[in-house]
Design goal:
alpha/beta; Rossmann fold; 7-stranded mixed beta sheet; 8 helices; globular; disordered N terminus; binds S-adenosylmethionine
Protein backbone atom coordinates (compact mmCIF):
# COMPACT_ATOMS: atom_id res chain seq x y z
CA UNK A 1 0.00 0.00 0.00
CA UNK A 2 1.40 3.42 -0.88
CA UNK A 3 2.33 5.58 2.10
CA UNK A 4 0.37 8.77 2.41
CA UNK A 5 2.03 12.07 3.15
CA UNK A 6 1.62 13.18 6.76
CA UNK A 7 0.49 16.79 6.93
CA UNK A 8 2.77 19.21 8.81
CA UNK A 9 0.04 20.20 11.25
CA UNK A 10 -1.47 17.14 12.91
CA UNK A 11 -4.65 19.09 13.51
CA UNK A 12 -5.48 19.55 9.85
CA UNK A 13 -5.45 17.63 6.63
CA UNK A 14 -5.79 13.97 5.73
CA UNK A 15 -7.62 11.46 7.90
CA UNK A 16 -4.81 10.16 10.15
CA UNK A 17 -6.41 6.73 10.28
CA UNK A 18 -5.72 6.39 6.57
CA UNK A 19 -1.97 6.81 7.13
CA UNK A 20 -0.29 3.44 7.49
CA UNK A 21 3.23 2.08 7.66
CA UNK A 22 4.69 -1.41 7.37
CA UNK A 23 6.15 -3.05 10.48
CA UNK A 24 9.22 -5.28 10.20
CA UNK A 25 6.88 -8.26 10.25
CA UNK A 26 5.04 -6.78 7.28
CA UNK A 27 1.73 -6.04 9.02
CA UNK A 28 0.28 -2.61 8.38
CA UNK A 29 -0.06 -0.51 11.54
CA UNK A 30 -1.35 3.00 11.67
CA UNK A 31 1.52 5.45 11.74
CA UNK A 32 -0.43 7.26 14.40
CA UNK A 33 0.02 4.30 16.74
CA UNK A 34 3.73 4.33 16.12
CA UNK A 35 3.89 8.01 16.99
CA UNK A 36 1.93 7.36 20.15
CA UNK A 37 4.30 4.60 21.19
CA UNK A 38 7.34 6.77 20.45
CA UNK A 39 5.87 9.67 22.42
CA UNK A 40 5.14 7.40 25.39
CA UNK A 41 8.67 6.00 25.32
CA UNK A 42 10.13 9.50 25.19
CA UNK A 43 7.94 10.75 28.07
CA UNK A 44 8.67 7.69 30.21
CA UNK A 45 12.43 8.12 29.71
CA UNK A 46 12.30 11.83 30.39
CA UNK A 47 10.26 11.58 33.58
CA UNK A 48 11.96 8.46 34.91
CA UNK A 49 15.21 10.39 34.75
CA UNK A 50 13.90 13.74 35.94
CA UNK A 51 11.33 12.80 38.62
CA UNK A 52 13.39 14.15 41.58
CA UNK A 53 14.30 17.35 39.74
CA UNK A 54 10.67 17.81 38.63
CA UNK A 55 9.47 17.53 42.20
CA UNK A 56 12.13 19.96 43.39
CA UNK A 57 11.45 22.48 40.62
CA UNK A 58 7.66 22.55 40.60
CA UNK A 59 6.86 21.98 44.27
CA UNK A 60 9.78 23.41 46.18
CA UNK A 61 11.47 26.03 44.00
CA UNK A 62 8.46 27.35 42.07
CA UNK A 63 5.63 26.33 44.35
CA UNK A 64 2.59 25.80 42.13
CA UNK A 65 0.42 24.40 44.90
CA UNK A 66 -1.05 27.80 45.96
CA UNK A 67 -1.98 28.52 42.34
CA UNK A 68 -4.13 25.39 42.19
CA UNK A 69 -5.41 25.79 45.74
CA UNK A 70 -6.78 29.27 44.91
CA UNK A 71 -8.28 28.02 41.68
CA UNK A 72 -10.13 25.08 43.27
CA UNK A 73 -11.28 27.14 46.26
CA UNK A 74 -12.66 29.72 43.86
CA UNK A 75 -14.51 27.18 41.69
CA UNK A 76 -15.78 25.16 44.65
CA UNK A 77 -15.51 21.92 42.67
CA UNK A 78 -15.10 19.53 45.59
CA UNK A 79 -18.05 18.08 47.46
CA UNK A 80 -18.56 15.08 49.77
CA UNK A 81 -19.22 11.64 48.26
CA UNK A 82 -17.40 12.15 45.03
CA UNK A 83 -14.88 10.34 42.85
CA UNK A 84 -11.96 12.32 41.47
CA UNK A 85 -9.45 11.24 38.82
CA UNK A 86 -6.07 12.99 38.47
CA UNK A 87 -4.90 11.96 34.99
CA UNK A 88 -1.14 12.14 34.44
CA UNK A 89 -0.76 12.92 38.13
CA UNK A 90 3.03 12.63 38.14
CA UNK A 91 4.36 13.40 41.61
CA UNK A 92 0.79 14.25 42.67
CA UNK A 93 0.95 18.03 42.60
CA UNK A 94 -2.81 18.45 42.19
CA UNK A 95 -4.10 15.64 44.41
CA UNK A 96 -1.69 16.84 47.08
CA UNK A 97 -3.64 20.12 46.98
CA UNK A 98 -7.13 18.61 46.69
CA UNK A 99 -6.83 15.97 49.42
CA UNK A 100 -5.94 18.39 52.27
CA UNK A 101 -8.45 20.90 50.90
CA UNK A 102 -11.22 18.32 51.21
CA UNK A 103 -10.22 17.73 54.84
CA UNK A 104 -10.04 21.46 55.57
CA UNK A 105 -13.54 21.87 54.17
CA UNK A 106 -14.81 19.00 56.31
CA UNK A 107 -15.80 16.96 53.25
CA UNK A 108 -16.06 13.20 53.54
CA UNK A 109 -16.07 10.09 51.41
CA UNK A 110 -14.01 11.42 48.50
CA UNK A 111 -12.13 8.80 46.50
CA UNK A 112 -9.05 10.01 44.66
CA UNK A 113 -7.65 7.95 41.80
CA UNK A 114 -4.47 9.04 40.07
CA UNK A 115 -2.61 7.53 37.15
CA UNK A 116 0.58 8.26 35.31
CA UNK A 117 2.74 6.68 32.66
CA UNK A 118 5.92 6.89 34.74
CA UNK A 119 6.61 4.80 37.80
CA UNK A 120 9.38 7.11 39.07
CA UNK A 121 6.94 10.04 39.23
CA UNK A 122 4.36 7.92 41.05
CA UNK A 123 7.05 6.73 43.49
CA UNK A 124 7.40 10.31 44.77
CA UNK A 125 3.61 10.58 45.01
CA UNK A 126 3.27 7.21 46.76
CA UNK A 127 5.83 8.31 49.39
CA UNK A 128 3.65 11.32 50.13
CA UNK A 129 0.51 9.15 50.32
CA UNK A 130 2.21 6.90 52.88
CA UNK A 131 3.52 9.80 54.96
CA UNK A 132 0.09 11.43 54.90
CA UNK A 133 -1.63 8.15 55.82
CA UNK A 134 -3.91 8.66 52.83
CA UNK A 135 -3.76 5.10 51.45
CA UNK A 136 -7.49 4.54 51.96
CA UNK A 137 -8.51 7.63 50.03
CA UNK A 138 -5.85 7.89 47.33
CA UNK A 139 -4.91 5.13 44.85
CA UNK A 140 -2.35 5.35 42.07
CA UNK A 141 -1.52 3.20 39.07
CA UNK A 142 0.74 3.21 36.03
CA UNK A 143 -1.45 3.88 33.02
CA UNK A 144 -1.23 5.37 29.56
CA UNK A 145 -4.00 7.89 28.91
CA UNK A 146 -4.28 6.60 25.34
CA UNK A 147 -5.16 3.10 26.60
CA UNK A 148 -7.88 3.73 29.12
CA UNK A 149 -9.61 0.54 28.03
CA UNK A 150 -7.11 -1.28 30.30
CA UNK A 151 -8.30 0.57 33.42
CA UNK A 152 -10.11 -1.51 36.05
CA UNK A 153 -13.86 -1.09 36.03
CA UNK A 154 -13.78 0.74 39.37
CA UNK A 155 -11.75 3.48 37.67
CA UNK A 156 -14.74 5.14 36.03
CA UNK A 157 -17.90 7.12 36.78
CA UNK A 158 -15.96 10.13 38.00
CA UNK A 159 -17.59 13.30 39.22
CA UNK A 160 -14.42 15.24 38.48
CA UNK A 161 -11.48 14.53 36.19
CA UNK A 162 -8.48 16.87 36.41
CA UNK A 163 -5.28 16.93 34.46
CA UNK A 164 -2.29 19.26 34.64
CA UNK A 165 0.50 19.48 32.05
CA UNK A 166 0.17 15.86 30.91
CA UNK A 167 -1.65 16.11 27.59
CA UNK A 168 1.35 18.06 26.27
CA UNK A 169 3.13 14.70 25.91
CA UNK A 170 0.52 13.17 23.61
CA UNK A 171 1.21 13.52 19.89
CA UNK A 172 -0.80 16.46 18.59
CA UNK A 173 -2.85 14.41 16.20
CA UNK A 174 -3.87 11.98 18.99
CA UNK A 175 -4.81 14.62 21.55
CA UNK A 176 -8.53 14.40 20.77
CA UNK A 177 -8.42 10.66 21.53
CA UNK A 178 -6.96 11.29 24.98
CA UNK A 179 -9.56 13.98 25.68
CA UNK A 180 -12.40 11.74 24.45
CA UNK A 181 -11.11 8.84 26.57
CA UNK A 182 -11.07 10.98 29.70
CA UNK A 183 -14.53 12.38 28.95
CA UNK A 184 -15.75 8.81 28.68
CA UNK A 185 -14.64 8.17 32.27
CA UNK A 186 -16.93 10.91 33.62
CA UNK A 187 -20.36 10.10 34.93
CA UNK A 188 -23.21 12.02 33.26
CA UNK A 189 -23.09 15.55 34.65
CA UNK A 190 -19.45 15.09 35.71
CA UNK A 191 -16.87 17.81 35.07
CA UNK A 192 -13.40 17.74 33.62
CA UNK A 193 -10.87 20.53 34.18
CA UNK A 194 -7.75 20.56 32.03
CA UNK A 195 -4.69 22.73 32.53
CA UNK A 196 -2.59 22.94 29.38
CA UNK A 197 0.55 24.88 28.57
CA UNK A 198 0.09 27.79 26.20
CA UNK A 199 2.43 28.70 23.36
CA UNK A 200 4.30 31.87 24.34
CA UNK A 201 8.00 32.62 23.75
CA UNK A 202 8.85 31.91 27.40
CA UNK A 203 6.90 28.65 27.41
CA UNK A 204 8.51 27.59 24.12
CA UNK A 205 11.89 27.75 25.78
CA UNK A 206 11.03 26.58 29.27
CA UNK A 207 8.48 23.83 28.61
CA UNK A 208 8.73 23.27 24.86
CA UNK A 209 12.48 22.92 24.68
CA UNK A 210 13.65 22.04 28.19
CA UNK A 211 10.69 19.77 29.04
CA UNK A 212 9.80 18.55 25.51
CA UNK A 213 6.17 19.68 25.83
CA UNK A 214 3.74 20.34 23.02
CA UNK A 215 2.24 23.79 23.51
CA UNK A 216 -1.21 24.94 22.45
CA UNK A 217 -3.24 27.94 21.44
CA UNK A 218 -6.94 28.32 22.02
CA UNK A 219 -7.96 27.87 18.34
CA UNK A 220 -5.98 24.60 18.24
CA UNK A 221 -7.70 23.36 21.37
CA UNK A 222 -11.09 24.34 19.95
CA UNK A 223 -10.45 21.87 17.10
CA UNK A 224 -9.29 19.16 19.52
CA UNK A 225 -12.31 19.49 21.81
CA UNK A 226 -14.72 19.49 18.87
CA UNK A 227 -13.09 16.31 17.52
CA UNK A 228 -13.28 14.75 20.98
CA UNK A 229 -17.03 15.41 21.03
CA UNK A 230 -16.81 17.70 24.06
CA UNK A 231 -19.74 20.00 24.60
CA UNK A 232 -20.09 22.85 27.12
CA UNK A 233 -16.45 23.82 26.68
CA UNK A 234 -15.46 26.88 28.70
CA UNK A 235 -12.06 28.59 29.01
CA UNK A 236 -11.55 29.77 32.55
CA UNK A 237 -9.45 32.61 33.90
CA UNK A 238 -7.22 32.21 36.92
CA UNK A 239 -8.66 33.91 39.98
CA UNK A 240 -7.59 37.23 41.46
CA UNK A 241 -3.86 37.42 42.04
CA UNK A 242 -2.77 35.34 39.08
CA UNK A 243 -4.88 36.42 36.09
CA UNK A 244 -1.69 36.90 34.05
CA UNK A 245 -1.31 33.13 33.78
CA UNK A 246 -4.34 32.76 31.56
CA UNK A 247 -4.47 36.32 30.21
CA UNK A 248 -0.87 36.06 29.02
CA UNK A 249 -1.60 32.72 27.35
CA UNK A 250 0.87 30.82 29.58
CA UNK A 251 -1.77 28.41 30.69
CA UNK A 252 -5.08 27.38 29.15
CA UNK A 253 -7.68 26.18 31.60
CA UNK A 254 -10.59 24.34 30.04
CA UNK A 255 -13.67 23.08 31.80
CA UNK A 256 -16.09 20.73 30.10
CA UNK A 257 -19.13 18.91 31.45
CA UNK A 258 -20.45 15.55 30.30
CA UNK A 259 -24.08 16.12 29.43
CA UNK A 260 -26.76 14.40 31.53
CA UNK A 261 -28.21 11.49 29.58
C1 LIG B 1 4.84 17.78 33.33
S1 LIG B 1 4.43 16.32 34.18
C2 LIG B 1 2.96 16.83 35.04
C3 LIG B 1 2.71 15.98 36.25
C4 LIG B 1 1.60 16.48 37.19
N1 LIG B 1 0.32 16.51 36.55
C5 LIG B 1 1.96 17.84 37.73
O1 LIG B 1 1.23 18.79 37.46
O2 LIG B 1 2.97 17.97 38.41
C6 LIG B 1 3.79 15.32 32.88
C7 LIG B 1 3.39 13.94 33.34
O3 LIG B 1 2.64 13.33 32.28
C8 LIG B 1 2.94 11.95 32.29
N2 LIG B 1 2.57 11.39 30.98
C9 LIG B 1 3.16 11.63 29.79
N3 LIG B 1 2.55 10.92 28.83
C10 LIG B 1 1.56 10.23 29.43
C11 LIG B 1 0.58 9.30 28.97
N4 LIG B 1 0.53 8.95 27.69
N5 LIG B 1 -0.29 8.79 29.85
C12 LIG B 1 -0.23 9.13 31.16
N6 LIG B 1 0.67 9.99 31.66
C13 LIG B 1 1.56 10.54 30.81
C14 LIG B 1 4.43 11.92 32.59
O4 LIG B 1 4.85 10.65 33.03
C15 LIG B 1 4.57 13.01 33.63
O5 LIG B 1 4.46 12.51 34.93
Amino acid sequence: MAELEIPESPLEGADPLAVTKRTQAGAAVPEEEEMERAAATMARKLFNKRAPIYDFLFRKLIDFAPVFRDFFYDRDLLTSDMKVLDAGAGTGLLTRVLYPMAREKGLSNITFHAFDLTQAMLDVFDDWIRKEGAEEAVSTRVQDVLHLETLPEAWGDYDLVVTVAMLEYIPRRSLHKAVAGLLGRLKPGGKMVLFLSGRTPLMRFFLGWLWRSNLYTRPELDVVFAKAGATNVEYLPFPVGRPYLTRGGYMLVVETTRPLE
